[in-house]
Sequence to fold (153 residues):
Amino acid sequence: MRKGKIPVTILLLTIALLPGLGYSANVPPSVSQLVANAKKAIKTVNMAEFKAMYDKKDVGLLVDVRDPDEYATGHIPGAINVSRGTLEFKLWKHVGGHEKPNLNKKMTLYCGSGSRCALAAKSLMDLGFTNIMAVDMKLADWKKAGYPIMKKK
Fold:
């Protein structure tokens, strides 16, 4: 490797892992508007509210909607991983099955920035779920506050 050159892989990985850059930056205004509209249609909690609920074990089913590789790098203890891209297809086993799902099952969704979980929560509401909330926080802020994170083993 030549002096002063950064390998492209390291550069891309760094950009992907920087908080707030992966999904919220460099998107058309229509995407930002879609997320804003979803947040208006769902129940959201901020990090402090979520932490209080988490400490009381009052979050219901905790769902990390990031992709599996993101989940593996560190997630909130107790969270299951059902990525936003497969949520509508793979969540059913966690809510009583596809034949008789518990549409009132309490679920709290989070992601890296609060955007994907808002879209996922809206999607679940559109499917008839009634007790859904999304955590409007950056996971990096959760980590920075010293709150618990665990890595997939």
Observations:
- The CA atoms of residues 26 and 32 lie 10 Å apart.
- Helices lie at 8-17, 29-41, 47-55, 68-73, 87-90, 115-126, 139-144.
- The chain has seven helices and five strands.
